[in-house]
Amino acid sequence: MGKISAIKVAVVVVALVMLASVAPAPVVPIERVGASPGPSEIHVSPDGWWDATAGEPPVAHLTPTPLQDAIGNASDGDIIIVHEGVYTGQVIIDKALTLQGFGDATVIKPTQDNASNFQLFARKAGGAANTAPIIVVQAGPEKEVTIKDLKVDGSLVSSVPPGANSFVGILYLGTGGTIDSVTIDGLLTTQSNGIYLSSLGETVAVEVKGCIISNFLKNGITANYEGLTASIHNNVVIGSGPIENIAQNGIQIGYGATGSIFENEVSNIAYTGGDWIACGILLFDWSGTVTITGNIVTDCQGGIIGQTWSSGSYKAIVSGNTVSATGFADQEVPYVTGIGFSTWAEGASIDATITGNTVTDCQSGIEAHAMASGSSCKAIVSGNTVSATGLAEGASCVGIYFATWAEGASIDATIEGNDLTGGGPGDGIATGSISEYGPAGTVNALITDNEISGWQHGVWLGLTSNEVAITGNTITSNTAAESGIHIISGVDVSNIHVNYNNIEGNLEYGVFNNATGTLDATLNWWGDVSGPSGVGLGAGDAVSENVNYEPWLDAPFPGGKPVFGKLIHLHRGWNLISLPVIPASTGISDILEPIEGKWSEIWSYQIARG
Fold first, then answer.
1. If you average pLDDT over residues 397-416, what whole number do you get?
2. Cβ contacts of 226 within 8 Å, gap of 6 or more
3. Phi/psi at 533 (nearest 5 deg)?
4. Does residue 15 have a pLDDT over 90?
5. Are 342 and 349 within 8 A, CB to CB?
6. What mean pLDDT value characterizes the chain?
7. C-alpha–C-alpha distance, residues 78 and 101, integer Å
8. Cα separations (Å) of 369 from 278, 342, 356?
């Protein structure tokens, strides 16, 4: 099929995720400044803090660490109002509090001297203390903490204490709550994350909303570990664009966590260093059903990606997202994928529903790969719009692609009602592997009611294509030499059926079968009432050898009726009941001969006398 498309070669590439590091030391207790419990509301300025107990005059406390001292003197349920100004030092929250600022005018901004003395925490239950957070929340699973309306700035920090392998803006550990309308910026050292949520072995739920996260080194928002349910929505995550030193991810749910990711804007995330891809939204060994809806993902190497490296069952719903990589059209960014799922562990299975998305100018628009023996993927791909007209002429790309790459791997795909009329310099819909890798596993697919035009091949069937039904599609104006439907050598076509499609205006062939065996391509409209050209005798799109095209339709589906290649004139006195084939002449023996043994139960004839 000409050049090997980049995505078909890219199956050895995986997303580099934020790896699990290991469990927190307990928070160091903070001694109260006063003897009495904290009031319901505490106010903080850069010079000190004061309470606001009803009916009493405020009591001011001047201190070089006002925010942390205010937290130390608070009680569960208190609200800490952090006024305008810059606050240095680490913030440790061990109570059920609300920490509320005044937007970007309230800035938590540690110096390098502060960061050198940060207390370290673990990100995973039972692990080592190896994370240096600016703000850390560890109040316990029965409590919730809200952080809202402030800015976290790590731009003055260039290194973290010995033993730390990650720098984090806000770290939630085994505690539920909400992070609301927080700006996080300037975390550019040591695998930094803007926001990191960890269950720490507990059952907790955290909501992250309305945040703006940029200038981070590794991940914008990370939600990891079993027991955590994350609701991540209405955030803006901006990566560093194509870079070669690290594979960023915008939003990640992984390692047994579950949740929802909706109505976020993620952009400018790509890795050019090879071996890995950077993802706008990444699912990695997640649990439950994760929903990804209504997001806008722009110029991300992997737009929305799900990968499994452990056995088990995984489910995802991806709907109503807009994924575009138009900004990469003239850049050397490899393996640009719009929406993709892949299984890398034996016994892993993914159930993905991908509906109503718009994917533009990606090397692979929507894809699924079963990489490991015994792994599987079930996918419903419906109502999506995929185009790649912004890619350079001759670029390798594919609109929708499903393939297996290991013995015993399998994919069952329903590809229905998608709009691929924008076209691109590759294949519209493709199943199976390329010949360089050999057949391994099976792909079963129902390809139905799609609009496919302007590609090289409208539909391309490679090795491992097994049971494939291509029906009810409109396949037009595709431009490769074997352009409409192309089947490569080595495919077994005995279980492949091409029926009730409208195939017309393709450059050289409507259907090209390069495999052995005869392809069932009956009951299609070929663009002309006379049927297909090529080995056919009509004026419609051409068919190659090894294609059974009779009967064809005499008009576009669904209105066309079956017709055969020759006409006969009935003799006077004949009564015709049904005629499933047209014989070469009008003799009765010629009528019987071609249908004997095939239609004996459903046809009859009678010679009229008198």
1. 96
2. 199, 201, 255, 256, 257, 287
3. -95, -155
4. no
5. no
6. 88
7. 14
8. 18, 5, 21
Residues 6+ apart with CB under 8 A from 587: none
Contacting residues for 322 by C-beta, under 8 A, at least 6 apart: 295, 296, 297, 357, 358
Cα–Cα distances in Å, from 116 out to 47, 90, 161, 278, 531?
Answer: 22, 10, 5, 30, 78
* Residue matched to tokens 């050049």: 3
* pLDDT surpassing 90 at residue 272: yes
Q: Give the dihedral of Cα atoms 257, 258, 263, 268; nearest 10 deg.
A: 30
Tokens of 134: 């600016």
Distance between CA atoms of residues 305 and 266, nearest Å: 13
Q: Which residues contact 36 (CB under 8 A, 6 or more apart)?
A: none
The amino acid at 284: F
Alpha-carbon distance 495 to 352, whole Å? 25
CA dihedral in degrees (114, 116, 119, 125; nearest 10)?
130
Phi first, then psi, for residue 122 (nearest 5°) are: -90, 150
pLDDT of residue 14: 35
Distance (Å, whole) CA 260 – CA 361: 26
pLDDT at residue 16 greater than cutoff 50 = no
And the tokens for 454?
A: 């302007």
Residue 327: φ, ψ to 5°: -65, -15
Contact 174, 145 (CB under 8 A): no
Q: In terms of DSSP H, where are the helices of 30-148?
A: 66-72, 112-116
Q: What is the CA radius of gyration of the chain?
A: 31
